[in-house]
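Postdoc handover notes: sequence design on the structure in folder B. Input tokens:
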């Protein structure tokens, strides 16, 4: 009985811990570049001199700085979205885009990042929307993969066959993985959504996607 209770408690506690860990990581990632500046302002003007409850003055300054930075970043992001809709500002961004594309080294990083963002969030291309099974890392072993798009023509030409780029996510962190080029005939398409595939990978195979229910034929 204790084992069942422990597993039940673990099933409730783990998602909460993972969620908190991800949120804390994002907060630290977004606020780290600016926290030194805001903390210096707090210390210079002696805005916070005492601790609060179990927090020391240093901890209180850090958490207050992170809170203010998040609010400012939110306001800045919303304002940037509004401003970029204006025609004149859009023209200025186009000029900045041209300048960045002419700066050595910077243009490579900028172009790559821009193309990735457009492909994933703006473009209507079917990137990462088709789930397939592929052999990896052994010919008789299958894993789930997400079709990115056709492989570069240079690669297909060198192989003498049509190649397809497939991203194979790792578990339990699907943000990392392997990019492998397969022959199209070696792909095994399956009727599964990208969301279900990522849930299956993220849960280490515990959450199994349900098979789609067959559609009933309409009577004429």
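Designed sequence:
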């Amino acid at each position: 009985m204790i084992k069942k209770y422990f597993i039940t408690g673990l099933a409730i506690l783990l998602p909460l811990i993972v969620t908190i860990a991800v949120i804390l990581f994002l907060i630290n990632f977004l606020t780290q570049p600016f926290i030194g500046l805001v903390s210096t302002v707090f210390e210079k003007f002696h805005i916070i001199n005492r601790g609060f409850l179990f927090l020391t003055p240093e901890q209180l300054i850090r958490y207050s700085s992170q809170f203010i930075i998040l609010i400012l970043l939110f306001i800045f992001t919303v304002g940037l979205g509004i401003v970029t809709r204006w025609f004149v500002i859009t023209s200025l961004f186009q000029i900045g885009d041209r300048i960045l594309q002419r700066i050595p080294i910077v243009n490579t990083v900028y172009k790559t990042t821009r193309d990735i963002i457009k492909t994933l969030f703006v473009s209507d291309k079917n990137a990462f929307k088709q789930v397939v099974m592929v052999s990896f890392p052994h010919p008789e072993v299958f894993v789930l993969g997400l079709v990115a798009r056709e492989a570069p023509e240079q690669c297909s030409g060198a192989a003498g066959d049509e190649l397809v780029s497939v991203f194979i996510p790792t578990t339990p962190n699907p943000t990392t993985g392997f990019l492998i080029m397969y022959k199209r005939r070696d792909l095994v398409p399956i009727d599964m959504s990208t969301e279900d595939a990522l849930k299956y990978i993220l849960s280490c195979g515990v959450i199994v996607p349900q098979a789609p229910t067959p559609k009933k034929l309409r009577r004429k």
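Context for whoever picks this up: The first helix runs from residue 2 to 44. Don't rerun without checking with the PI first.
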